[in-house]
Amino acid sequence: MKKKFLLDEERIPKTWYNVVADLPEPPAPPLNPATGQPAGPEDLAPIFPMGLLEQEMSPERYIAIPDEVRDIYRIWRPTPLIRATGLEKALDTPARIFFKYEGVSPAGSHKSNTAVAQAYYNKQEGITRIATETGAGQWGSALAMACHMFGMDLTVYMVKVSYHQKPYRRTLMQLYGAEVFPSPTEHTAYGRTLLAEDPDNGGSLGIAISEALEDVVTHPGSKYSLGSVLNHVLLHQTVIGEEAIEQMEMADAYPDVVLGCVGGGSSFAGIAFPFMREKLAGKTKTRFLAVEPTATPSFTKGTFAYDFGDTAKMTPLLKMYTLGHDFIPAGIHAGGLRYHGMAPLLSHAYDLGLIEASAVRQTKVFDAARLFVQTEGIVPAPESAHAIIAAIDEALAAKAEGAPRNILFNLTGHGHLDLASYDSFLAGDLQDYDHPEEAIAESIAALPKVG
Ligand SMILES: *Cc1c(COP(=O)(O)O)cnc(C)c1O
After folding, report:
1. What is the pLDDT of residues 119-140, one digit of tens each?
2. Residue nearest to atom 1 of ligand 1 (CA)
3. Which of 42, 141, 302, 328 is the most buried (most CB within 10 A)?
4. Residue 413 Cα: closest atom of ligand 1
């Protein structure tokens, strides 16, 4: 037994992979909104530690994973690569379907991969406290675990409607030792202003981000932390793809297509970028498919332009596929995919034609999730189920062609704390939502003017 664990430990990657080193063109830099000039580390130093800002701007191909971070990864990494034979049989497909299961992390999703790294670099620079926002609570719980392990305090501004609708995520964060406020709160000037206008304000991710940022700049020794979108977050997630390359080799099945759901894009980049390195080197022909909800169609209906990362316009301008920072997503059940933009690095890859994208409706997503539960036994997070429906479509296309195909998708998290959403599905209460073209055009018209 002991030997097996030692062998597993050897298989945890020793470096993160930075795709910037291999892209045919560099991505556009972030801009300081006041000057219109490229934002440097000094623009972001008040809110992020230097260790992470160096990674954010790094041209290096490989960045060593600190031993302290690998020691914690050991709890759930390497994550299993599983062949979905039950699903293959149900679809009667000649395709082989594999999934990389990130739901085995203690907090239940891939977000722990970056949470541990971010907590580590903050701790290294003497930071004693982090403040962040969370929507449905996946990010908050991953960071709560990581902060506690490094002996740091964490304050989470959780969107008020989710705070009341998803009480168990809040319990999990509190159990890990975090302080959780329903946002808007009385703890920030911005929150107090909003509550004075409307005591029943239910909050939004944009408001929660603004409160967390205000908290950080008014509390010395505190920094801010983001669970997706930025380059360093995508970098930390590449452990998923590096492990998968080795595991697919062991299965003697190189993927013809790699798929994943996209919210801010970090988990998809994490599984796709290491395989993209092989393709850019001319060794493989793998396709990459990002799957988003029709309710937040950043890739399929958005515009590639400079925009703010948040509703309150406090972040630097990022060049990304965006629906506009004013975009208000519908209340779909995949809470982790409700973001107005897409990671700049992934947006750049899409613009270069290196990845494909598709959008799916939530009732189809939950149908696919149920088939997966009944054939593979695992309850997927509603976010992850967007990849399942796309994998099923690929497997059915292979069947129609009568040709084999190796499909790999990212199962980013489990859905044990999303059973209320599954309850709505079983009761027939789920509705589909296509974001109206006019609403998209309106928020895109409000994009900041650059250059
Ligand atoms: C947050 C989340 C996502 C979406 O975030 P990305 O940055 O696009 O990966 C997907 N799946 C789960 C389970 C999540 O918690």
Report:
1. 999 999 999 999 999 988 999 9
2. 336
3. 141
4. 13
